[in-house]
Amino acid sequence: MRLALIAHDEKKPDLISFAEERQADLERFELMATGTTGQRLIDATGLDIERKQSGPLGGDMQIGAEIASETCDGVIFLRDPLTAQPHEPDITALLRICDVHQTPLATNLASADAVLDELIRQLDGEE
Ligand SMILES: O=C(CO)COP(=O)(O)O
Q1: What is the DSSP annotation of 73-109?
Q2: DSSP summary character for residue 49
Q3: Closest C-alpha residue for ligand 1 atom 10
Q4: Which atom from ligand 1 is nearest to the alpha carbon of 35?
Q5: String of b and e for 73-103 (b: at least 16 CB within 10 Å)?
Q6: Which residues form the MGS-like domain (predicted)?
Q7: Separation CA 111–CA 126 (nearest Å)
Q8: ipTM of this complex > 0.90?
Q9: Mutation test of ligand 1: which of 32, 36, 50 has the most ligand atoms closer than 8 Å to its C-beta?
Q10: Domains in the chain, ordered, with CATH?
Q11: How many Å from the N-terminal Cα to the C-terminal Cα in the chain?
Q12: Number of Cβ within a 10 Å radius of residue 117
């Protein structure tokens, strides 16, 4: 099962803490991330993560393409709701394509736990 991890700059510390707390669970997935998020997560946890471009350079669109291809099963995207992003259209497109494909999407820490728990439940059912 493939999971995407993304965080805006103000939320990267939260995502790193989440990944540290849930590292054993995350290791069960094929992970992908936008560029800077991925590097920060790798540095902090050593998780094996496929890094896409940085978000403003097209990383959100690359993850959107994975969702459109049905090669990404869930997204944890800790958005910063208080800071304008130069690539807002890409962010909107990513959220939209998740809805089009019924891809589980968490946009804050509380729902990140819920989405990860559900995907783990599905993984356990597959085994
Ligand atoms: O901007 C982002 C998502 O919209 C995240 O990109 P980075 O992980 O490269 O910072």
Answers
A1: -EEEEE--TTS--TTHHHHHHHHHHHHHTT--EE-SH
A2: E
A3: 36
A4: 9
A5: bbbbbbbeeeeeeebeebbeebbebbeeeeb
A6: 1-127
A7: 23
A8: yes
A9: 36
A10: 2-126 (3.40.50.1380)
A11: 12
A12: 12
72: tokens are 């990404």
Q: Residue 80 carries which side chain, given as an amino acid letter?
A: D
Report the DSSP pairing between strands 74-78 and 49-51: unpaired
Q: For the residues of 7-41, what is the DSSP string, one character each?
A: E-GGGHHHHHHHHHHTHHHHTTSEEEE-HHHHHHH
The predicted-structure confidence for 3-31, as pLDDT tens digits, reads as follows 999 999 999 999 999 999 999 999 999 99
Asked if 35 and 51 count as a contact pair (C-beta separation under 8 A), the reply is: yes
The pTM score is 0.97
